[in-house]
Automatic annotation (TrEMBL):
PANTHER family hit by this protein: CYTOCHROME P450 (PTHR24305), CYTOCHROME P450 MONOOXYGENASE STCB-RELATED (PTHR24305:SF96)
Phylogenetic lineage: Eukaryota, Fungi, Dikarya, Ascomycota, Pezizomycotina
Domain of life assignment: Eukaryota
Keywords: Heme, Iron, Metal-binding, Monooxygenase, Oxidoreductase
Family membership noted in the UniProt record: Belongs to the cytochrome P450 family.
Protein name: Cytochrome P450
Molecular function GO terms recorded: heme binding; iron ion binding; monooxygenase activity; oxidoreductase activity, acting on paired donors, with incorporation or reduction of molecular oxygen
Cofactor: heme
Alphabetical list of SUPFAM superfamilies matching this protein: Cytochrome P450
Length: 488
């Protein structure tokens, strides 16, 4: 025998002890130790990952901010920041905080999209190309008619279904169909016509799975890798979506090249690309960007619009005030007309504060040399992440932050300016979401049309605060996956 059992066990014990010491020593001298947070975040991120798996990430992070303050350690290498000055430092124009590797893991595509691009120059060139298509002027000139048509159709469909079902309808279903028809028309050049069919198609079903799968897989790559091979179809489908998404994406390229050049929002971008402009798009770029933008523009709008109406219907005084205001619109009105309605604008701002569909993490890497923020030194290479969910519930900025109170946006100008500066549901700075004008156009037109045509509507008994509690897999959605109302 080479070694006695006693010697072998001693030898093994020494190896284990050395391994433990090697694991613990870095934690003893880590500059992040000065930051407040649970003791276990010095050693592991397992508690954070459990929150990710259960759709409770934003809730968990917010509970830590509530307990420990605006700067809190959430893993051995990650800090959550909920401080207006810190947010500006990280995301402001000219910031040298780069996107973290999380964005690589978030995408299911074989190339980065505008959202996941990490390299700053490439992102700036691509954003410049896209900015023209998503500008307010281009949307109003070329696409407002399409949006208005879908908005009017969804309200008619809601009324028709209510007539067949004793008044009860699921708003989340119908607004998902509306948003998908708008997005498919703009991104792919042809509507999915789900409003006419009254049900989601395979692309939308797969898109919903992809969003949930990406939200989990970005933070737990091992779960995604293993999940693809498990003998459970419902689990495998979370990470086997590329083939169906690609099939629809090819439609965007075909329509972009169609005669007339106005079939989708990418048509003019292609013309610029053919001039050799930096950030130029090839066919594959169009495929992946169309898919990514469709995903970004569908569930987000549907969820926020659903929560808007749910929140207003919970308070009859708000419903009556909004109904009275939208009743002043002309019979044939435009988005410009809705922009002039102060209470509608306030309702939308308050909805985006409390119920914006993407209130989760925006992780960035601390640049070389490290930074001092909030009285703490954070070394280079560490991850700092902000969450709109917590920023929008900061009592220092939003008094009585959990209360849905649109009238706060109609008060003192200085207070309103401070609140607007704190809103980050569409990101901040040079990396902010280009789809903001499209989203607000849909929200204004759809909310105005609903409260004009469906006056006196109320929540169904099933639409409780418990049923509407957030589930968070990057985006939010009601845990019940529905929101039933009774249309008058």
């Amino acid at each position: 025998m080479l070694l006695s059992y006693t010697t072998a066990f001693v030898f093994l014990g020494v190896i284990v002890a050395i391994s433990i010491v090697k694991t613990l020593l870095p934690t003893l001298h880590n500059p992040l130790n000065a930051l407040p947070g649970p003791w276990h975040t010095k050693l592991t991120n397992l508690r954070l990952k459990l929150a990710v798996l259960t759709g409770r990430r934003i809730h968990y992070i917010h509970s830590l901010h509530t307990k420990y303050g605006p700067y809190v350690r959430i893993s051995p290498t990650e800090i959550a920041v909920n401080d207006p000055a810190g947010n500006k430092h990280i995301h402001g124009v000219g910031s040298n905080f780069e996107k973290s590797a999380w964005y690589n893991d978030f995408t299911v595509m074989d190339r980065p999209t505008l959202f996941t691009m990490q390299e700053r120059r490439s992102h700036a060139a691509r954003r410049k190309l896209f900015a023209r298509g998503f500008s307010r002027s281009n949307l109003k000139t070329n696409w407002e008619g399409v949006i208005k048509e879908k908005v009017e159709l969804v309200v008619r469909k809601v009324q028709e279904e209510a007539g067949r079902q004793g008044g009860k309808v699921d708003l989340l279903k119908w607004f998902t169909l509306m948003a998908s028809d708008v997005s498919s028309h703009l991104m792919f050049g042809e509507s999915f016509h789900t409003l006419e069919q009254g049900e989601v198609n395979e692309f939308i079903r797969v898109m919903t799975l992809a969003l949930k799968g990406n939200g989990i897989g970005a933070e737990l790559p091992l779960v995604r890798a293993v999940g693809k091979w498990l003998p459970f179809k419902a689990v495998r489908e979370l990470w086997q979506t590329n083939e169906i998404l690609d099939e629809y994406a090819r439609v965007a390229v075909r329509n972009m090249k169609a005669a007339g050049g106005g079939k989708n929002i990418f048509a003019n971008m292609l013309a610029e690309s053919e001039k050799g402009e930096e950030g130029a798009l090839d066919d594959r770029d169009v495929e992946i960007e169309a898919t990514a933008l469709f995903i970004a523009g569908t569930d987000t709008t549907a969820v926020s619009l659903t929560y808007l109406i749910w929140a207003v219907l919970r308070k009859p005084d708000l419903r009556i005030q909004l109904e009275n205001e939208v009743s002043t619109l002309p019979e044939v009105y435009t988005d410009a007309d809705t922009e002039k309605l102060p209470f509608l604008s306030a309702v939308i701002e308050e909805t985006m504060r409390l119920y914006g569909a993407a209130p989760g993490m925006l992780p960035r890497i601390v640049p070389p040399g490290g930074v001092d923020m909030g009285g703490f030194y954070i070394p280079q290479g560490m991850t700092v992440t902000t969450h709109a969910y917590s920023a929008h519930r900061d009592p220092e900025v939003f008094p009585d932050p959990l209360e849905f109170n649109p009238r706060r946006w109609l008060g003192d100008e200085a207070a309103v300016a401070s609140m607007k500066a704190a809103l980050s549901g569409f990101g901040s700075g040079a990396r902010s979401c280009l789809g903001i004008h499209l989203a607000y156009t849909e929200l204004r037109l759809a909310a105005a049309e609903f409260f004009r045509r469906c006056q006196g509507s109320r929540l169904a008994e099933s639409a409780t605060p418990e049923s509407m509690e957030f589930e968070n897999f990057f985006l939010i959605a009601p845990r019940s996956d529905r929101c039933e109302i009774v249309v008058a």
